[in-house]
Write a structure and sequence with these properties.
The chain has 11 helices and 8 strands. With 243 residues, it is α/β, with parallel strands linked by helices. The strands form 2 sheets. A 6-stranded parallel sheet has the order 3-2-1-6-7-8. α2 crosses α3 and α2 packs across α5. It starts with 5 loop residues before the first strand and ends with a helix. GO terms for molecular function: metal ion binding; phosphatase activity. It comes from Leucocoprinus leucothites.
Length: 243
């Protein structure tokens, strides 16, 4: 198949990056808050819990510069930087980020890796600095209409077909991609890959939530795309080289 135009969709935590931003910054700066989040995560919606923990961090004097520094030192494989940079230079690839992290965490890290112009769009939870406090909101406002995803996405965001993040992107940028490649690891990446066609591929990180859902639910939900597994970012670089 000749591919002239392709779209790479990236999840961020544990997919593009080798860690989870929401958890990492607290592990670095306030492990007791990280422990508290682990205890509260069944009771409080995750994005709200991160927002609340950021307020607590602020109230005990943790500074913007400390949070930014912790993001810059978060594990991020050099092979991932090389892989996406080379693919972008090839000229036929558009990049989209679909993430449950937030706009500030992602842009801080991308700037540090000189990848700030990689993505055409970054679809994630909105955040902004207000002095030393990072204010974070759910992408789907809890007071407005909620998405009706039936595949188990969390209330703040559905990456897949039901609240149409990926569908809406394809409407905005033309649907004529010869191939879509989705790089993901988590259980909430299952919904968007149900949108993919038989010529599309999921690059699934092995032994995490997405693989488990594929194994259990692919047949029932009618997953039609191809699946390739990887463990380290150096393998993603290799897989990109064959696209
Ligand atoms: Mg992830
Ligand atoms: Zn969904």
């Amino acid at each position: 198949m000749s591919v002239e135009k392709q779209l790479i969709v990236f999840d961020f935590d544990w997919s593009m990056a080798d860690q989870d931003t929401d958890r990492w910054i607290f592990e670095v700066l306030a492990p007791d808050l990280r422990r508290k989040m682990k205890k509260l995560k069944e009771e409080i919606q995750w994005t709200d819990l991160v927002a609340q923990s950021l307020r607590e961090a602020h109230s005990r004097g943790i500074k913007r510069s400390q949070i930014e520094h912790s993001l810059r030192i978060m594990p991020f494989h050099p092979a991932m930087v090389r892989g996406v940079t080379n693919l972008k230079a090839g000229g036929k690839t558009t990049f989209l980020c679909l993430s449950n992290s937030n706009s500030v965490f992602i842009s801080t890290i991308l700037n540090d890796k000189s990848l700030e112009t990689l993505f055409t769009e970054i679809i994630t939870n909105p955040a902004e600095w207000e002095g030393e406090l990072l204010k974070l909101r759910r992408r789907v406002d809890p007071n407005g209409p909620q998405h009706d995803c039936k595949v188990g996405c969390s209330p703040n965001m559905c990456k897949g077909k039901y609240c149409e993040e990926l569908t809406a992107f394809l409407e905005r940028h033309g649907k004529d991609f010869d191939r879509v490649v989705y790089v993901g690891d988590g259980s909430n990446d299952f919904c968007p890959i149900l949108r993919l066609r038989s010529q599309d591929i999921v690059f699934c990180r092995a032994n995490r939530g997405l693989q488990k859902r594929i194994e259990r639910e692919a047949e029932k939900e009618g997953l039609t795309c191809q699946i390739q597994y990887w463990a380290g970012a150096w393998e993603v670089e290799e897989m990109f080289g064959k696209l």
